[in-house]
Design goal:
This protein has about 400 residues and is an all-alpha fold. Helix content is about 75%, strand content about 0%. It has 17 helices and no strands. α5 runs antiparallel to α8, α5 crosses α17 and α12 packs antiparallel against α13. It is globular and about 65 Å long.
Length: about 400
């Protein structure tokens, strides 16, 4: 799971960097391979599609979040383990998410005011919408925020964290109802937006409701994984099947990414969201049971390290890239950015710089801020979360 989080994060980060650099990796399958694979309908795997449409991997990050957060509840349901404490769940989520998130908001606000932005009513609304993680619910605070644009994903996650314990309790009693309900909400909301508000799809496509099916699939994924592990069905045949399924998902995803360019981008993305979550789900379920060589791609030291720093890397990478370009670092002249004039030397210098700075910032914040603060929060006792003592009269 850590390796998958790192890979998904890498493509999201790469997409945002591509938006600024326009450096696109056009790498297709060699002719010798396509002469064989064309007989099964595969003529190319285009890496540039994974970069140009890397934003779809946000859906995988949300799926992973649903899987990981529901996993302890699934173990309690299927294996009879102790039911996770709701207060502890919220405490861990607060410790993991909010310190780095609020610190980023504060730094961005200070930079914004230092640059001369007036603290107007719009800025105030934007700031408090981000504070309470509801910015994606309003067009003006989602599509054109004063703060870093990627933060909407963190807010979607926080809103789902709030309801996770309730969803888990409902799943324990009536598993079909919450899953079918979330599927229905996701599919109906997506089709409603496409059919009735296509002109506003840019504002409401990435709404909490359209991710509902994705979240349900993450919960089901945890149940299926534990069930398979419990039955101990792993052998050479299941490993072969899982490996083929994993590669099949990559090929199907490659086709879906190509389809994104066949119509209005955000409309196609929204129509594909549920199917995409199913493809990611099959991939996530197949990977732990695949052959050792395939699993090693997602469980080595490099991807594990990237997974550790992934949260701060996600929060800061786009902001760093945009600000360095605004401040003309590396230096460039004129009114047209060098990526639009085809200045490859500058483009590569800039690419290397934003990657390096983003990684350094992510490492420093993870090890010297996020983790120490999280440890302190986990030691705190929150009276508001404590149950009142019952005394005998």
């Amino acid at each position: 799971m850590d390796g998958l989080r790192a890979i998904a994060m890498t493509f999201v980060v790469w997409f945002h960097f591509w938006q600024q650099t326009w450096l696109t990796p056009y790498i297709n399958l060699p002719a010798g391979i396509t002469n064989i694979t064309r007989y099964i309908g595969i003529t190319s795997i285009e890496l540039h599609s994974f970069v140009r449409y890397g934003f779809v991997f946000v859906d995988m990050l949300i799926l992973l979040s649903a899987f990981c957060n529901f996993y302890p509840y699934a173990r309690a349901i299927l294996l009879g383990e102790t039911w996770p404490d709701t207060k502890t769940f919220y405490k861990k989520r607060i410790a993991r998410i909010l310190p780095s998130y609020y610190m980023a908001l504060l730094v961005m606000l200070i930079v914004m005011l230092a640059e001369g932005t007036a603290f107007s009513g719009a800025v105030c609304k934007d700031f408090f919408a981000h504070i309470f993680c509801i910015a994606p619910l309003f067009p003006e605070t989602y599509i054109s925020p004063y703060f870093n644009g990627v933060l909407w994903t963190v807010q979607i996650e926080m809103l789902y964290y709030i309801v996770m314990p309730l969803l888990a309790k409902a799943f324990r009693k009536w598993p079909v109802i919450p899953c079918a309900g979330l599927w229905g909400i996701g599919i109906v909301s997506a089709n409603y937006i496409v059919g009735n508000h296509a002109d506003a799809i840019r504002y409401c496509g990435n709404h909490i409701l359209t991710f509902a099916g994705c979240y349900a699939n993450g919960m089901l994924l945890a149940v299926l994984y534990i069930t398979i592990k419990k039955k101990n069905l792993e052998n050479i045949y299941t490993r072969l099947t899982a490996t083929i399924a994993a590669f099949g998902c990559i090929l199907h995803l490659n086709g879906m990414l190509k389809d994104l360019g066949s119509g209005e981008l955000q409309t196609v993305q929204l129509q594909q969201r549920f199917e995409l979550s199913l493809v990611f789900s099959v991939f996530l379920l197949a990977l732990p049971f695949a052959c050792k060589a395939v699993k090693q791609l997602f469980s080595n030291k490099v991807v594990t390290f990237l997974a550790v720093i992934s949260y701060n890397l996600y929060i800061w990478h786009q902001y760093i890239a945009v600000k360095l370009k605004e401040y003309r670092i590396p230096y460039w002249e004129g009114d047209i950015p060098p990526n639009q004039t085809g200045d490859k030397v500058w483009m590569w210098q800039y690419q290397i710089l934003i990657v390096a700075v983003s990684l350094i910032v992510a490492v420093l914040l993870t090890y010297f801020f996020e983790r120490p603060v999280a440890r302190r929060i986990l030691k705190w006792h929150f009276p508001i979360l404590k149950k009142p003592n019952k005394t005998k009269q």
